[in-house]
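Reading a protein record of the kind used here takes little practice once its layout is understood. Each number in the token line that follows is a code from a learned vocabulary of backbone shapes. One such record is shown here in full, so that the layout can be seen directly:
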Amino acid sequence: ADAKVGVTMLCQSLAETMASHFPKRRIMLLHFGGNCGIDYTESGDALSLDDLKSALLSNVLQSSEILSACAKKQDNLYQLPGISVLSSRREYEPEHIHRFLSLCQADLILIDAGANYELGLTIGALRYADSRYLIATQQAVVFDRYAGAAKQILVPLGVQFAGLILNQHIANPMLDGADLWQKRYGLPVVSTVEFSDYGWQAEKEKESLLHFRDTRYTKSMEKLMEHIAEAAGWEVERASKFSLFGGKHEKRV
């Protein structure tokens, strides 16, 4: 819904958890929000989307090149950093992203689409994902910015969201709860991901919040994964295995 609602951390945590619980499935995390997207992980010798740009725009990019460019956080988790050269952000069109996604070889592709709705990167991710979830916080300014973008860009493009994820949630009577935000956004709240005090430390240590054993955060993340797995038709073994999507067909969310 906005640039500062914690989308990158949420995607990082989901990708790591899925890869851990499903070691035989290849998980891919892409950052199409207009920045590099690796604030919470070490990229090592990985390349970035910009390194693949010439081949992508020339329509000669190969699937093997995408896998080789990715950082491997875990044996089955492939993560491609996004934009490394800010001046190149506007060179990507939605159809470039469509072509890129068609070349990705993974059981699940998780996309951090950000909130830069003016970029072809973000629009491409929103248009060509199989499922879309809106991530917001309990801030009125976040809703106001989203409402403007929805009216001017998202609704005309026909972009529809499967549900609302209320991130960085704080249970406080001074703040509006999930029921009110559900009415305002007009979307079902599929999960509330609890606020964690370790955010700045995670950024400093380049780790996801999962590594700080914050019980509330971990439990809310597991609930989110349960919901999406069940919606996708996955068999969910509660409190044991969780996933976003699966089956015979590659899924993008």
Summary: The radius of gyration is 17 Å. Residues 191 and 223 are 7 Å apart (CA to CA).
